[in-house]
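Morning F.,

Quick status update on the modeling queue. The single chain you submitted on Monday has been processed. Sequence for confirmation:
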Amino acid sequence: MNEVEKDTSQEGKRSIVMPHKGGNRMMYVVVAIAVVAIIIVAAFATGILSTGSKESVTLTGAGATFPMPLILKWADEYYNTTDGGVKVNYGGGGSGAGITQIEEMQVDFAGTDAPLSAADSSTYGLVHIPETLGAVVVAFNLPDVSGLKLDGDTTAKIFMKNITTWNDPAIAELNPGVSLPDESIATVVRSDSSGTTFVFTGYLAIVSSEFDELYGQGKTVAWPDGTLAQSGNSGVAQAVQGTSYSVGYIELAYALENDISFAQMENHDGEFVTASLETTAAAAAAAVPILPAGDGDWSGVHVLDAPGVDSYPIVTFTYILIYKELYNEDTKMNKTAAEALLDFLWWAVHDDGQAFASPLQYAPLPDAVVELNEETLRSITYEGEPLID
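Structure tokens below.
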């Protein structure tokens, strides 16, 4: 508050207690109240009002729906941890939307399951911070069928529409003794630019040369005619749940939350494995020793079709993207907000934040990945100066 504001407010206080004739006293009271109101509004607008000893900060993110349940949980818990001092808003929208928004400086951070190309990471000065690990499952809705086994090649043929009925010999051979219906398969996919699609199609491209040649890996794919497209993991989950004889790909947490059945998948070692925290962690263990630095090239990083008898084959890291240099004259981020962002991410990737991963069916980060994230966060600067010692 500047000196003019102090003098005005003091005059206002005197006017309340000093006797005045006529309407002057009421006028002074009104003026005093107005001045106080203006000061309060200005304080809120500039972030001066604080909880405790720190300024109130709102951080904005968007992107992947894959980790969205965990990020929203973090936002609630961190808000409470800071006594309301730091509010984190995360809007989802898909990995592609999140990448676009962070590159256009519309958000403070982005979530993505699809790592950036080396060129994009370098061009925009963005770093990758692995936040958690999750599994993509092949969810299905088959009345009177509770268990299903699939391998990669058969799954690829289903989504390519080369297999169109549930009692096809290829599916029946994988499921001896299961009464499969003579019903058409309704395939459900993502309509938005999606990291989950990137992960799922990456897996199919590894296990099926035909899929790789015709479709390949991507955040969006030109699926065959007759495919039902929905937005977000939640949209696919709802469509599978509401459509008999359907199949779709969703993050494990969405399947469990909505009580949707999902297939056991044959892994790299020929074992049929159920997606779980343990089988997700087993798959990730093979990838950890070969991870790049946070500002390095993550474009080739994946945890798909990993070796090991206990490894689930469709596993991915999901990432937070932020700028390595947080000061930019085109953005509104001040140093206080930059510090709050790094404090939040440090909290999220360590035990306090990772404790919320397992209850939501995400695998906590291995220690080696936490150490890598520490190095990355220490490298982040504001006007060239590191924000973390």
